[in-house]
Amino acid sequence: MDIDAWVWWLIGAVGLGIPLVLTAMPEFGMFAVGAVAGAVTAALGFGVVAQVLVFVVVSVALVAVVRPIAARHRDGRPGLATGIDALKGRQAVVLERVDGSGGRIKLAGEVWSARTLDSGQAFEPGEQVDVVDIDGATAVVM
Length: 142
Prior knowledge:
Elements: H1 5-23, H2 26-43, H3 48-75, E1 91-99, E2 102-107, E3 110-116, E4 128-135, E5 138-141
Parallel strand pairs: 3-5
Antiparallel strand pairs: 1-2, 1-4, 2-3, 4-5
């Protein structure tokens, strides 16, 4: 039984699709598309050299074009700050005098203990402060 070259290319494409599913590495999918392009080339009657050339060109083009676009989209997504990370950078109102040893602020609708970042600095009730860090249950402000 003699199997046509395009069938071998499709078998290769399926073979490249398996690690794509198992490892979630999109490069395998790009190589699988290249193998499908090689199968189309074989089905159109081109020789082995043309088939391999089409496979290489399509695969490399996909990796060169798609990977940077995907990386840009993945890295451009803003991270969602939750918990204490969401409180950093917010403004609060001083309820009781805040200095290097302590005090109270109203932050995100809750009363927090607070201390200043610079121990020589102090804030009086009613002033706006910026939260720069959360140290345990204490907001560090400036």
